[in-house]
Amino acid sequence: MALLIKKSCINCDMCEPECPNQAISMGVDIYEIDPDLCTECIGHYEQPTCMKVCPIDNTIIHDPAHQESNEQLWDKFVLLHHSDKL
Fold first, then answer.
1. Quick one: how far is CA 85 from the chain centroid?
2. What is the rounded distance in angstroms from the CA atom of residue 75 to the CA atom of residue 68?
3. Residue span of the structural domain in which 24 resides
4. Are 31 and 25 in contact (CB under 8 A)?
5. φ, ψ for residue 55 (rounded to 5)?
6. 31-33 and 24-26 strand pairing
7. Is the C-alpha dihedral spanning 46, 70, 39, 63 positive or negative?
8. Which residues form the 4Fe-4S ferredoxin-type domain (predicted)?
9. Under a CB-based contact definition with an 8 Å cutoff, are residues 25 and 32 in contact?
10. Which residues contact 68 (CB under 8 A, 6 or more apart)?
């Protein structure tokens, strides 16, 4: 599933540059994660880097509205980064 940034975000700017899929951007009030681009860092890292660098516990969570299996996240990674080779 994609990740979600909760309203407890303090806009510290730590997560956005760490996202290998460029899925994080500034929203109206806080940073937001585009579920169409988020692969939870599958294909890049062992764990989501945004969660790792966020200084506020439980601010970045799994988005219950965008549930995806690891296989679906891998497929998304391939489409995002290797679609020219398909």
1. 24
2. 10
3. 3-85
4. yes
5. -80, -10
6. antiparallel
7. negative
8. 1-29
9. yes
10. 1, 2, 76
Which position has the token pair 């730590």?
14
Q: Domain containing 57 — which CATH number?
A: 3.30.70.20
Residue 84, pLDDT score: 65
Residues 10-33 have pLDDT tens digits of: 999 999 999 999 999 999 999 999
Q: Which residues contact 55 (CB under 8 A, 6 or more apart)?
A: 10, 12, 14
Query: What 3-state class would DSSP assign to 26?
Result: strand
Q: Total domain count for the chain? A: 1
pLDDT digit string, tens, across residues 55-85: 999 999 999 999 999 999 999 999 998 866 5
Residue where the block lists tokens 């700017």: 13
